[in-house]
Design brief:
5-stranded parallel β-sheet; about 130 residues; Rossmann fold; alpha/beta
Length: about 130
């Protein structure tokens, strides 16, 4: 079974490059280019892992993360923040809103893939809570 990833970022070049690599790695990838679209994709596509930028139009990543944690409680959805915001306040706010991992741009595809693999490995453990 291919794990479904939601890639939410308003930078279309980043999205297309990362999507191509994730597809090559065998993941099923859905994309969103703004926060409102990201929430729609969570509802409609039920991703296993969410890769979320903080700076997006309509709803920012903090708002999306907060909404995911409040609204979608049927299963654990790991959320990996991938953001250029490297300040301690943004990182702390993300973890306070229950982000599972935080990567600062620019980061390597290997760092992203490692984060995804770690989150996927934890899914069976979190399902029993």
């Amino acid at each position: 079974m291919a794990y479904r990833l939601l890639l939410a970022d308003d930078d279309r070049e980043v999205v297309e490059a990362l999507k191509a690599r994730l597809l090559k790695e065998g993941y099923d990838v859905v994309v969103a280019f703004d926060g409102q679209e990201a929430l729609t994709k969570v509802r409609e596509d039920n991703p296993d892992v969410v890769l979320l930028d903080l700076t997006m139009p309509k709803l920012n990543g903090f708002e999306v993360l907060k909404e995911i944690r409040e609204r979608y409680t049927d299963k654990w959805r790991p959320v990996i923040i991938i953001s250029a915001q490297s300040d301690l306040e943004s990182v702390q706010k993300s973890y306070n809103l229950e982000a599972d991992h935080y990567l600062t741009k620019p980061c390597s595809i290997e760092q992203i893939l490692q984060g995804i693999r770690i989150m996927i490995s934890l899914i069976p453990l979190r399902q029993h809570k």
